[in-house]
């Protein structure tokens, strides 16, 4: 039983991996512990979003990922 955490954009570089498997279920505190301190610091920023099962969470601290779910970590998008 596991959840796939997908790192996108600069978070991928910080994590030094594109994705990782973590035990299910996964909540906010579990996510912060699993991704390491540098990525966790970024996730605490309001501009970084978290998606679960393909939907961006309005309250990322309410994360409740279950077996087989994908959690995507979405850094802010820049451009013009």
Automatic annotation (TrEMBL):
It comes from the Bacteria. This is MoaD/ThiS family protein. It comes from Qipengyuania oceanensis. CDD domains: Ubl_MoaD_like.
